[in-house]
Amino acid sequence: MSQLKTLSHLDSIPSSPGKFKPDKPSFQIHRLRLHSSLLSRLAFWSLLFLTLMAFLFLLSPPSSPSSSSFSQPRRNLGSGASWGGREWEKRLRKSAAPRSNPGRTVLVTGAAGFVGSHVSLSLRRRGDGVVGLDNFDSYYDPGLKRARQNLLSRSGVFIVEGDINDRELLKKLFDVVPFTHVMHLAAQAGVRYAMENPSSYIHSNIAGFVNLLEACKSANPQPAIIWASSSSVYGLNSKVPFSEKDRTDQPASLYAATKKAGEEIAHTYNHIHGLSITGLRFFTVYGPWGRPDMAYFFFTKNILKGKQITIYEGPDHSSVARDFTYIDDIVKGCLGALDTAKKSTGSGGKKKGAAQFRIFNLGNTSPVPVTELVRILEKLLKVKAKKKLLPLPRNGDVKFTHANISLAHSELRYEPKTDLEAGLKKFVKWYISYYNNGSKKSSFR
Ligand SMILES: O=C(O)[C@H]1O[C@H](OP(=O)(O)OP(=O)(O)OC[C@H]2O[C@@H](n3ccc(=O)[nH]c3=O)[C@H](O)[C@@H]2O)[C@H](O)[C@@H](O)[C@H]1O
Q: What is residue 331's three-state secondary structure?
């Protein structure tokens, strides 16, 4: 319509002497109309074509890892950190090179985290090739994660900054390094925080885990996977100690539900793709370089500051207890699981035969009431805590945990050696050194 309107005014335009041919006036006007019509159609289609090209460009996946553009660093949208490029690949290969365990190269996800940093360091110290991966999220102080990263870097462990949900990054990592093992410790941790930010648990513990398993499935060779499940999968069970054979279908928190889902997802990838997978159910891990969101950590902070702490109690003032497990014992369990892991059987995403599938409790086998934890802290800190007792809120907490570790003992030679008082002593020593003297003077052990 508008095109017709625009053209109609041409009828009344006086023609210029040079171009106007009076003997064919109608033909001239017709050609002019045709010409303008063609021009506007051409403009319209060109515009459409350009818009389409721009749209396709924006939607197109980044160039394949083998293409030359990968020699340029790439920027993570979330964190702003970059990855890729020749220098980056060089650092990756150097970190991945084993020193005394020929052919053993481990990708540790969550390497700047509490358990991840300790495991990475132990692997490196005994000579394994180790590459870390961490997104340095701000669930708790990223400064603590950076301090752990600095320590690891001094020991020759390079932590790639990125998210397990970044498919391209994972593909690139497996293209550059033929990882023999993946120690998957990246997760959204914390039982109570799931009430505040449920989607972060789905993002990391489910979507991120599936993304990682997809990358492992397609990798050549397929790595063996060892990953962190949780004691929380036992949920509301009342039979103690918790055994791997017990039911795990009544989780008390979304955190627990995502870890339980992880176990089921792991089984699927083992069954379909021949991935060798070992799940480790950690029981309330504590120690130096720990997580500030955990009770023993913020109780210490608040006791020292003279701030009140809240201690939860069960019905009729019964105590709430945890099978607190010291970090060094957990690290030994992780390494035992890695050392006994069999190879995955698949290749090119296809299963070639049945692959190993295991689940182990890694606990301490001696639950301690939270009131006792506080008493030990008061003794070590030489400060009386300002305590407030409150009934256990319905926010994901369970009343007690207690691990049966006989399976881990027989298969991994797992044998926890640190009681809560000895472990907290080491934690308090580290805490005071780290927060009074700064991170540089604190070492791992
Ligand atoms: O084994 C696990 O799989 C989980 O262990 C850990 O969870 P939890 O055992 O709940 O540890 P944590 O929060 O330190 O509370 C310890 C105790 O203090 C009590 N508690 C807590 C807070 C408070 O203010 N008062 C209190 O009494 C509270 O009731 C509890 O009895 C990890 O955080 C989790 O990521 C997961 O790994």
A: helix
Report ipTM for this prediction: 0.99
How close is the Cα of 290 to the center of ligand 1, in Å? 13
- Dist. CA 284 → ligand 1 center (Å): 7
CA separation, residue 33 to residues 20, 394, 432 (Å): 14, 77, 86
Rounded to the nearest whole angstrom, what is the distance from the C-alpha of residue 410 to the centroid of ligand 1? Answer: 28
CA distance 173 to 152: 19
Q: What is the pLDDT of residues 274-314, one digit of tens each?
A: 999 999 999 999 999 999 999 999 999 999 999 999 999 99
CATH 1.20.1280.260 fits 69-286+324-364+401-418, yes or no: no
Domain boundaries along the sequence of the chain = 69-286+324-364+401-418
Strand extents, DSSP E, 7-115: 74-75, 82-83, 105-109
The pair of structure tokens assigned to 1 is 């319509």
Ligand 1, CB cutoff 6 Å, lining residues: 189-191, 230-232, 282-284, 294-295, 310-312, 320, 322, 370, 397
